[in-house]
Design brief:
Blueprint: E1 2-12, H1 16-27, E2 32-36, H2 43-47, H3 50-68, H4 83-89, H5 91-107, E3 111-114, E4 116-119, E5 124-128, E6 134-144, E7 148-150, E8 163-165, E9 178-182, H6 186-197, E10 201-205, H7 217-229, E11 232-235, E12 240-245, E13 250-254, E14 259-262, E15 264-267, E16 271-273, E17 306-308, H8 319-333, E18 346-348, E19 353-358, H9 361-366, E20 371-377, H10 382-387, E21 392-399, E22 405-412, H11 415-426, H12 436-440, H13 451-463
Parallel strand pairs: 1-2, 1-6, 2-3, 6-17, 8-15, 9-10, 9-15, 10-11
Antiparallel strand pairs: 4-5, 5-6, 7-16, 12-13, 13-14, 18-19, 19-22, 20-21, 21-22
Helix pairs in contact: 1-8, 3-6
Length: about 475
């Protein structure tokens, strides 16, 4: 075993959280090592999760737009596009991301060790690569950024070729006619919209009574409506009893007595932190039942000098938030005051998309805050009419007395982009965080951002009734 000493920071995991931590520390002059057990940097975000699913969504949207374009009806036949063809198309995006991310490590002189990393005691990290060569890195600090993986119940056979999770679905080599998705969280809803967009019949099984019940109720209802309109059957309040897979398909037995049959099953019911085999026991750290680690406000675990960020610590489990957690954690090691991620916008890449930031109507009602609503329906916006993307709305929640912006909820075309306009205003100190900004500011026309002016005027008109 080769021993390498003098490291300031060793990061395990090169996803968004680990990369951000490594770059922040390196730019402050720290000697940083990155350990990644995959052949390329980027983590699950780049290779299995965020980037592939969003690239797939773009391709499916292109197919849908072609099919709906009246100028192309009868002019150009749309070739049959199957799942393997779509997945193959996104390989270029993944490769481009790997090139960009690899450049970060090279330019900032962060040494990347390709291998499995585990803690080997206080201030020590052991690395073993695929050729079974070993290194022992001695360091001042350790940051764990190993991410998460799909949760696998023991009674479901994930080795069967017709049973997939959100990682292995990218390896599916055929295009099923119908599909069962068990789990209607963010990932389940995103894939449901992808597959229905391809013309498949989808059964989406939800253990709760509403889709994504952390969303504003009106937005959740809109998502349900559009998924059903696209051909998705949503089954609320259901839990599985058993999964039986054979050569011809998969049968999902529900506790309610229902039996669902399809060509394949996508299991999308939660994720577990990648804390297994990290050597946590050598420094006295214990993960919870979901494999996640508890940290303090500086992202430090119960062991001195050992920190954790990203999906490994649970909420909010978003790539955007993980970047900030990694950056804030490393900044703390460089002497800055501890910072926590706050006001994280929700971005859900269904078709149409969803994004929100701030409080919902239910939360404001529970808190007895006197609020009002301003709405802009996309079907009335010139830009939406031009693009044909008329489904959706922008909803602003604001204080009746001060006009302070309290929540932004968007459903439809470019929702994840539109939300940032309002997010920037919400972050301003009073009195600059009010509805007045949208009324007094001139927006480009025609644009989707103009929805803010329309919604603000709609809300103010409600006060004048």
């Amino acid at each position: 075993m080769n021993t390498s000493s003098g490291w300031d920071l060793v990061v395990i995991g090169s996803g968004p959280a680990g990369e951000a931590a490594a770059m922040r520390a390196a730019k402050s002059g720290m000697k940083v090592a990155m350990i990644e057990d995959q052949a390329q940097v980027g983590g699950s975000c780049t290779h299995l999760g965020t980037i592939p699913s969003k690239a797939l969504r773009h391709q499916v949207r292109q197919v849908i737009r072609h099919q709906r374009n009246p100028l192309l009806q009868g002019v150009a036949d749309m070739p049959d596009v199957g799942w393997p063809q779509l997945v193959n198309k996104i390989r270029d995006v993944i490769s481009a991301q790997v090139r960009v991310r690899s450049g970060f490590y090279f330019r900032n002189r962060v040494q990347v060790f390709q291998g499995r990393g585990r803690i080997a005691g206080e201030g020590r990290v052991q690395v073993q690569d695929r050729q079974e060569r070993e290194w022992l890195l001695e360091t001042r600090y350790i940051i764990l950024a190993t991410g998460s993986r799909p949760y696998h119940p023991e009674d479901v056979d994930f080795n069967h070729p017709r049973v997939y999770d959100s990682d292995t679905i990218l390896d599916m080599d055929h295009t099923p006619r119908n599909l069962i998705i068990y789990g209607a969280g963010v990932i389940g809803c995103e894939y449901a919209s992808l597959f229905t967009g391809m013309g498949m019949r989808v059964d989406l099984v939800n253990s709760r009574e509403h889709l994504l019940d952390f969303l504003d109720a009106e937005i959740s209802d809109a998502l349900s409506y559009h998924l059903r309109e696209q051909g998705c059957t949503i089954r609320h309040g259901e839990e599985y009893e058993a999964v039986k897979a054979d050569d011809d398909g998969v049968t999902l037995l529900l506790k309610s007595g229902k039996r669902l049959r399809a060509d394949a099953l996508l299991w999308s019911n939660g994720r577990s932190g990648n804390s297994r085999d990290l050597g946590l026991e050598t420094v006295g750290i214990q993960a919870n039942g979901r494999g996640q680690l508890q940290v303090d406000e500086a992202y430090q675990t119960s062991a001195p000098g050992v920190y954790a960020v990203g999906d490994l610590i649970g909420w909010p489990s978003l790539a955007s938030a993980s970047y900030d957690q990694g950056r804030f954690c490393a900044a703390g090691l460089c002497g800055e005051a501890p910072r926590q991620v706050s006001n994280v916008p929700t971005g859900i890449y269904t078709i149409p998309g969803i994004s929100s930031v701030g409080r919902t109507e239910h939360e404001l009602t529970e808190a007895k805050v006197p609020y009002e609503v301003g709405q802009a329906f996309f079907k009335n916006l010139a830009r939406a009419q031009i693009t044909g993307e008329k489904a959706g709305m922008l909803k602003l929640l604001f204080h009746r007395d001060t006009l302070e912006l309290l929540g932004i909820h968007c459903f439809g075309y470019q929702a994840t982009e539109i939300v940032h306009v309002g997010q920037a205003i919400m972050a301003q100190p009073a009195p600059h965080n009010t509805l007045d900004y949208f009324v007094e500011t001139t927006f480009n026309y025609p644009t989707m951002a103009e929805a803010y002016r329309v919604a603000a005027i709609n809300g103010l008109n409600r006060l004048r009734r």
